[in-house]
Specification:
The protein is α/β, with parallel strands linked by helices. The chain has helices at 17-30, 47-62, 85-105, 121-130, 142-157, 184-187, 195-204, 217-228, 259-265, 285-298, 325-328, 333-336, 350-354, 368-376, 390-401, 419-430, 435-456, 461-475; strands at 5-9, 36-41, 68-72, 111-116, 134-138, 210-213, 240-243, 272-276, 301-305, 307-308, 321-322, 341-344, 359-364, 381-383. Bound molecules: the ligand COc1cc(-c2[o+]c3cc(O)cc([O-])c3cc2O[C@@H]2O[C@H](CO)[C@H](O)[C@H](O)[C@H]2O)cc(OC)c1O and uridine-5'-diphosphate. InterPro entries: UDP-glycosyltransf_plant, UDP_glucos_trans.
C-alpha cells in the first residue's frame, strides 16, 4: 500500500514557502521512511513570487527526493478589493478551498495530515470536513501565535483603542507588554478594518490538531507554557504546540563565493554591521538618508542591502527593485565610506553573510526568519521593526532574550529612527558606545546560538518535539473517502 502522505499548503513569499518545505523534508527524514510529502502549490499572485517558487520547486525536484511531490492547484481570481494583506491572503485561500478539497480527495494514498500556513485558516475547515488531522505551521514565533490566540481576551479586556490605553498589557508568559509592540492591525482597532481578522484567526486556530512552530522551547518557553496551560484561551486547552526550530534551509556555500562574502573576507572579525530589511526590504528616502548619515558618522564597517522602490505598491504585490544607488544615496556617501562600507543593491545571500566571522551585528526588520538566522550564527541585533508581527518579535529580542540593543523608533512617524539614535545604538552594539549593554547583547547572542544548536541536535528539545510530532502524524493517517454524500 502507498505510504501515508503529509499534505503541505504553503503560501508564497520568502519567509513562508521555503521554511515550510524545509520542515516537510525534516518530517520525511524524522518518519524514517514511513511518510511521504505532497505539496499543493497555489499559483503565486505576483510574477516575481512565481519565478522564485518555480526555481525552488525545480531545485527540490532535481534533488531526486522520491518522497516529495508537487501538485499545482488551478488559478483563482486575485481579489482587488480588500482591507489589507491579511484579508487579501485569506480571500485567496478561501477561493482555493474547493481545489484543496479536490486535490486531497484525489490522492491515492492515506492522508496523515494537512499542514497549513499562518493565513490558511479556511484549509482547517477543509481538513475537518475530510476527517484529516490539521496543523498550522507557524512561520513566525510563538509570541505572535500567542497574540492571535489571546486576541479575543484582549479585545474584551480593553474595549477602547490599545493605542490610547495607559500602562502595559498583561499577556501570559511575557513581561509587561507595551501596547506599542502590537501589530498595527490590532493597535488601531477603529482605523484598521482587518482588526477582526485577528479575532477570527485566533478563534479558528482552536480547530487545529496542533501548532508546529518554527521556534525552540529555549527561546520562548514561558509563552509556549502559557499556550499549553490554556492561559491564553480562557482555560480551554489549546492545540498542542510543537516547537521544532530553528528550521533554517542551509545550503553548502557555492564554489564561487558571492561578492558580498568576498568583501567580508577582507574585514576583521566581528567588525561589520549588516543592514538588511528582509525580502520586501523597502525604505522611503527619509529613512535611507538617516541610515546613511548614521553609517557615515559612526565610522564602523557596514554591509547595507539597499533595495529600490517597488513597481506596484498594493499589499502583497510590493516587490523591491534593484536600487539605483546614485539616486537613492546622499551625494558623496559612497566615496566617503569607500573601503569600510559596501552597499549592495539587490538580493544578498543573507545566511552566508550572517555565517561570516566578520559580521558583528545586524540591523534587522525583525522578520522571523532573519531573527532565527541571526540567532543561529550568534549575531546580536539592532531591531528596526517595520510592519506586521515584527514589533512583537523585537520585544522578544530585547526584553526576553536580551540579544539585542534597543533602538528608539517613532511608530507615529512610520517607524522613523533618527540618525543620531542609530549611530548611538551601532556604537553600543559593535563596541565603543555604552559598553555594558553591547557586551551583554553579544554574550547573550553567543549563549542563544549554543541553545539553538543544542535544541535541534539528537535528544534536544526541538528534536524531541519533532519525534513526537512525526509519531502523532504517522498514527493519524486516514483514508479520505473518494466520494462524498
Ligand atoms: C504571505 O505573504 C505576506 C505575509 C505578510 C504578513 O502579514 C502579517 C500581518 C499581520 O497582521 C500579522 C502577521 O504576523 C503577518 C505576517 C506576515 O508575514 C511575514 O511573516 C514572516 C515569517 O513567516 C516574516 O516574519 C515577515 O516579517 C512577516 O511580514 C505580509 C506580506 O506583505 C506585506 C506578505 O506578502
Ligand atoms: O537580501 C535578502 C533579503 C532577505 N533574504 C532572506 O529572505 C528571508 C526573509 O524572511 P523574513 O521572515 O526575515 O522576512 P520577510 O522578508 O518575510 O519580511 C530570510 O530567509 C532572509 O535570509 C535574503 O536571503 N536576502
Amino acid at each position: 500500500m502507498a505510504k501515508p502522505t503529509v499534505v503541505l499548503l504553503p503560501v508564497w513569499g520568502a519567509g513562508h514557502f521555503m521554511p515550510m518545505i524545509e520542515a516537510g523534508k525534516r518530517l520525511l527524514r524524522g518518519s524514517g521512511g514511513a511518510l511521504s510529502v505532497t505539496v499543493l502549490l497555489m499559483p503565486a499572485p505576483t510574477p516575481e513570487a512565481a519565478v522564485d517558487i518555480a526555481a525552488q520547486v525545480k531545485r527540490e525536484e532535481a534533488s531526486g527526493a522520491d518522497d516529495i511531490s508537487f501538485r499545482h492547484l488551478p488559478a483563482v481570481d486575485i481579489p482587488t478589493v480588500h482591507t489589507g494583506i491579511e484579508e487579501w491572503v485569506s480571500l485567496i485561500l478561501r477561493s482555493h478551498g474547493p481545489h484543496v478539497r479536490a486535490a486531497i480527495a484525489g490522492l491515492d494514498c492515506p492522508v496523515a495530515a494537512l499542514v497549513t500556513d499562518i493565513f490558511c485558516t479556511p484549509a482547517l475547515d477543509v481538513a475537518a470536513e475530510l476527517g484529516v488531522p490539521s496543523y498550522v505551521y507557524f512561520t513566525s514565533g510563538a509570541v505572535m501565535l500567542e497574540l492571535l490566540l489571546y486576541s479575543p481576551v484582549l479585545d474584551e479586556e480593553v474595549p477602547g483603542e490599545f493605542s490610547e490605553m495607559d500602562g502595559a498589557l498583561n499577556i501570559p508568559g511575557l513581561p509587561p507588554v507595551p501596547p506599542s509592540v502590537l501589530p498595527a492591525t490590532m493597535l488601531h482597532k477603529k482605523k484598521m478594518s482587518t482588526y477582526r481578522w485577528f479575532l477570527e484567526t485566533g478563534r479558528c486556530y482552536m480547530k487545529a490538531t496542533g501548532f508546529i512552530v518554527n521556534t525552540a522551547a529555549e527561546l520562548e518557553q514561558s509563552v509556549i507554557d502559557a499556550i499549553a496551560d490554556g492561559r491564553c484561551t480562557r482555560g480551554v486547552p489549546a492545540p498542542t504546540v510543537y516547537a521544532i526550530g530553528p528550521v533554517i534551509a542551509l545550503t553548502p556555500p557555492p564554489e564561487q563565493p558571492h561578492e558580498c562574502v568576498r568583501w567580508l573576507d577582507a574585514q576583521p572579525p566581528a567588525s561589520v554591521l549588516l543592514v538588511c530589511f528582509g525580502s520586501k526590504g523597502l525604505l522611503p528616502p527619509p529613512k535611507v538618508r538617516e541610515i546613511a548619515a548614521a553609517l557615515e558618522r559612526s565610522e564602523h564597517r557596514f554591509l547595507w542591502v539597499l533595495r529600490g522602490p517597488p513597481k506596484d505598491s498594493r499589499p502583497g504585490q510590493r516587490v523591491p527593485t534593484d536600487a539605483m544607488l546614485d539616486e537613492l544615496l546622499p551625494e558623496g556617501f559612497l566615496d566617503k565610506t569607500k573601503g569600510r562600507g559596501l552597499v549592495w543593491p539587490t538580493r544578498a545571500p543573507q545566511k552566508d553573510i550572517l555565517a561570516h566571522a566578520a559580521v558583528g551585528g545586524f540591523v534587522t526588520h525583525c522578520g522571523w526568519n532573519s531573527i532565527l538566522e541571526s540567532l543561529w550564527f550568534g549575531v546580536p541585533m539592532l531591531p528596526w521593526p517595520l510592519d506586521n508581527e515584527q514589533h512583537a518579535n523585537a520585544f522578544l529580542l530585547v526584553s526576553v532574550l536580551g540579544v539585542a540593543v534597543p533602538l528608539r523608533l517613532d511608530r507615529e512617524r512610520d517607524n522613523f529612527v533618527e540618525a543620531a539614535e542609530l549611530e548611538r545604538a551601532v556604537s553600543t552594539l559593535l563596541g565603543g558606545g555604552d559598553g555594558e549593554a553591547g557586551r551583554k547583547a553579544r554574550e547573550k547572542a553567543v549563549a542563544v546560538k549554543a541553545a539553538c544548536r543544542k535544541a535541534v541536535e539528537k535528544g534536544g528539545s526541538s528534536d524531541a518535539a519533532f519525534q513526537r510530532l512525526a509519531e502523532e502524524i504517522r498514527r493519524g493517517a486516514v483514508n479520505v473517502p473518494k466520494k462524498r454524500n
